[in-house]
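Worked example 2:
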Amino acid sequence: MSLGPYASFIVTAYALVAIVLALLIGWVVVDYRSQTQRLRELDESGIVRRSGRSATELP
């Protein structure tokens, strides 16, 4: 496979895109874990989400 005279530019561009995508996926995974941990802590402390109650329950 020959990429011609621009091979280094093409390979570098694809490598940078792959790195950025990997960083974004990692960031989402870390944030998801952080948010679920925070929700677990709030749930254990007795704070409930409003969406967890039914519409007929009184506050």
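The two ends are 67 Å apart (CA to CA). The chain has a mean pLDDT of 85.
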